[in-house]
Amino acid sequence: MALGRAFSVAVTGVDGQLVEIEADIGQGLPSIHLVGLPDTTLNESRDRVRAAVTNSGEKWPDGRVILALSPATLPKVGSVYDLALAAAVLDAGDAVPSARLEGAVLLGELALDGRVRRARGVLPAVLAARAAGRSTAIVPESALAEASLVDGIKVLGAATLRELVDWLRGEGELRPPEGMLPSSERPSGDLNEVIGQDEARWALEVAAAGGHHVLLTGPPGIGKTMLAQRLPSLLPMLTERESLEVTAIHSVAGILPGDHPLITVPPFVAPHHSTSVTAMVGGGSGSARPGAVSCAHRGVLFLDECAEIGTKVLEALRTPLEEGEIRIARRDGVARYPARFQLVLAANPCPCAPARDVDCICAPLARRRYLGKLSGPLMDRIDIWVQMHGQASGAFAASGAESSAVVRGRVEAARKAAAVRWQEYGWTTNAEVPGHTLRQRFRLPPEALAPVENALRLGRMSARGADRAIRVAWTICDLRGGEIPGTQDVMQALNFRQRGAA
Q: Can you give the residue ranges of the AAA+ ATPase domain (predicted)?
């Protein structure tokens, strides 16, 4: 009886766990048995691995092969284990030395001819390998740039199983990472391309500075989508930690671009209004995959024509909006994905959506029902409401609107002031600060709080709405360079909410 061993990584959510793969070659009829809670894709790897080994010029064992993946109680999903399975079998058959396998983690899917294909979740898998104390990570050559984002672990790329075998025998070398990665480019579009809409532009600046959520309403063609698409151009570049977070999520989702594997600019995600709950928040059969809310982490989630989106889809946004995280429960555990995004909603005022309100042909009940999908609890989580109106004819001749770069300078200064203020608590933007902290440790002067208390007393807003108004007031204060919000800052923040209710 011969035993072989190799290591791979199981990724759940954006967290990885080291998986030990053991191969046992015993007496009996030639067969392959895979144990350790494999899914359908992993079960099919038996045929892929056997064909890849034989087509790479190596001999497949004649006896009964048992492949065990440990921990046995951890569900194993996907084809990322193929390379490690093949190495474990070759090790058990004494075809390769085991010295280099001891400290290495093998990631990659095998083609029938022995080529190593890219798999989902390479970046979080390499991060988990480093945390587990592995010294080397072998990844598909096409995923080498992605894996090389992780410091503290040696990353090598293999194009074929043959190359891996030669490396294990000390007869060849695998490809190391090459040079610096190209930085991501900011999305096209500048704020100075938006005609007029000074009020909406100011609201967008406040939203960018504090990480607040926005609702834009108005007739079609007025610039709602155009404004939303330019919000990422106002946001600062992602920090190194944020870049790795976002890149790991996109890697698990399988949407990471090969030419720019490191995402350094805030992502912009705009799902269609017919999207499902699973596509929005994540899920699916077997392994729970990230949805639009997680792909928009540290960026912008734009829902155009939000009144046409299903009620269940909109209500599913409540938890990630409040907690910045989405938890997807499955039979075998819970997958957690970060979801700290800025939500931008855009909607027409009614189904007929005329250019002027006086031309509306909708019945009063139809107008109320149209925006009725935006429930009270959901609207309570929106910080800034903006009702946009048509522009005068002179707006087209106007020039000299501020560019995104100019506004971004003020946004970065405001964010820096907020980050310094909340540094000891671990928050980076005003939108992340819990309400109890604002009410107790950073309580505003009585004269500044008077408008909020009056609105609460009259029932115009909830306690959550009051907390969100105070967060916006802090952002407005940061934009003007103040130390603590005053009455005017609070009034502007309340005006952002009460205008949308009108």
A: 210-375
Q: Cα separation of 91 and 100, whole Å?
A: 11
Contacts of residue 452, defined as CB under 8 A and 6 or more positions apart, other chains included, come to 466, 469, 470, 490, 494
DSSP E strands, 128-213:
136-140, 154-158
Q: pLDDT for 72-113, tens place per residue?
A: 988 888 899 999 999 999 999 999 999 999 999 999 999 999
Q: Which two tokens stand for residue 122?
A: 């390479």
Nearest alpha carbon to residue 247 among 114, 122, 161, 392: 122
44 by Cβ neighbours in 10 Å (0-12 / 13-18 / 19+) ranks as: middle
What average pLDDT does the structure give for the chain? 90
The domains of the chain, with CATH numbers, are: 2-168 (3.30.230.10), 191-402 (3.40.50.300), 433-502 (no CATH)
Whether the per-residue pLDDT at 2 is higher than 90: the answer is no
pLDDT of residue 501: 42
Q: Is the dihedral of CA 133, 137, 143, 145 positive or negative?
A: positive
Instruction: Quote the CA–CA distance of 222 and 159 in Å, as a whole number.
Output: 51
Contact (CB, 8 A) for 221 and 197? no
pLDDT at 502: 38
